[in-house]
Amino acid sequence: MAAQPLLPLFKYSTIKEISDSGDLSSLPSCYTCRGPDIDGPTEALEEEVPIIDFSLLVGGTAKQRTQVIQDLSKACRDWGFFMVVNHGVPKSLMEAMLNTCMGFFNMREDEKQEYNEKHVLDPIRHGTSFNTSVDKVRYWRDYLKVFVHPDFHSPAKPSGFREISVEYATRTREMTKELLKAIWESLELKPDDMEEALDLNSCFQILVANLYPPCPQPELALGIPPHSDHGLLTVLLENGVNGLKVEHNGKWVHVKSLPNSFLVNTGDQLEIVSNGKYKSVVHQAEVNASSTRMSLVTLVGPSLDNVVVPAPQLVKHNHQLAYNGMKYRDFLEHQQANPLLVKSLLDLLRLHN
């Protein structure tokens, strides 16, 4: 089936509009970014990913907490990815956050236009693909990005978005800080040093709602290409439709989340501060032909003005410095303003001894 040209798409501004129109029976060529002719076979494995019981980390016995920290260490070292259960975030809040984000995407296009993408550090940004000013191909994705810490922002509509998102952001930030504290301990670093190294009281937190509508030829498209995240940890909530693949031992693994769980992956800043002991995981988002997938990403990083460098305690005993430092604000802006290419910016900071 021949790919359709770009021309008919000019009247649409989002993937949701394209999908809802029913005008397409095949994928426009500008969205073709994978397949046997481009990147070889696309089959992926199905493996059980590490599961972390958050309740045992914060409310268990000393022995149970120690075991969870060991489990986190292994998950960060071997996978860069894990699933969090018994996290204490109410199911009703998780559902409300997904629903209010869906409410935003369902608004009229003219109502969303005031948030259309401009600068990558605008606190509220709505758009499609990844960054249409630099994307060589388009990705089958609409998004809403909202900065929620240290300064909280919210779109004015839909009604209730502000109240729901401030509670959700607070609860997920608290959970992520506890996970980071345990990961820090797993590196045998002193808890007091973490605040000095990362300035987490002023940590950067962003909410990203990703919408992946049904796609006419999902085997040729991607929701978002292989990449690592720029922060410390990323917390992912899905709407019940799977589509996440993570790279593990050189192969792709399909991830299926348990009900009422969060998926968590390590980011570039954690790889830097751990001096490479914990690698940021490469992952991608797939689309499908029949169901709308929505994912809600909570990304937590250090303070934007923090220059992240490997923890000095990890650069000793014959362990050489693995990365140069860089202000987190500059790292984020560079990654978001350029094509999304796996670990391209992190590779620039990596020292080759």
How would you describe this protein?
The protein is an alpha+beta fold and 353 residues long. It is 31% helix and 20% strand. It has helices at residues 15-21, 36-39, 54-59, 62-78, 91-105, 109-112, 161-186, 191-198, 268-273, 328-337, 344-349, and strands at residues 45-46, 51-53, 81-85, 124-128, 142-149, 204-212, 224-227, 233-238, 244-248, 251-254, 262-266, 283-285, 293-301, 307-308, 326-327. The strands form three sheets. The chain has an eight-stranded mixed β-sheet with strand order 2-3-11-8-13-6-5-4. Strands 1-10-9-12-7 form a five-stranded mixed β-sheet, with no helix packed on it. A two-stranded antiparallel sheet has the order 14-15. Strand 9 and strand 10 (251-254) form a beta hairpin. Helix 4 crosses helix 7. The longest helix has 26 residues, at 161-186. The chain is globular, with a radius of gyration of 20 Å.
What descriptors fit this protein?
globular, alpha+beta, single chain, 15 strands, 20% strand, Jelly Rolls, 353 residues, eight-stranded mixed β-sheet, five-stranded mixed β-sheet, 31% helix
Give a short synopsis of this structure.
The chain has 353 residues and is α+β, with helices and mostly antiparallel strands. It contains 11 helices and 15 strands. Pfam families: 2OG-FeII_Oxy, DIOX_N.
How is this fold's topology laid out?
Layout: H1 15-21, H2 36-39, E1 45-46, E2 51-53, H3 54-59, H4 62-78, E3 81-85, H5 91-105, H6 109-112, E4 124-128, E5 142-149, H7 161-186, H8 191-198, E6 204-212, E7 224-227, E8 233-238, E9 244-248, E10 251-254, E11 262-266, H9 268-273, E12 283-285, E13 293-301, E14 307-308, E15 326-327, H10 328-337, H11 344-349
Parallel strand pairs: 1-10, 2-3
Antiparallel strand pairs: 3-11, 4-5, 5-6, 6-13, 7-12, 8-11, 8-13, 9-10, 9-12, 14-15
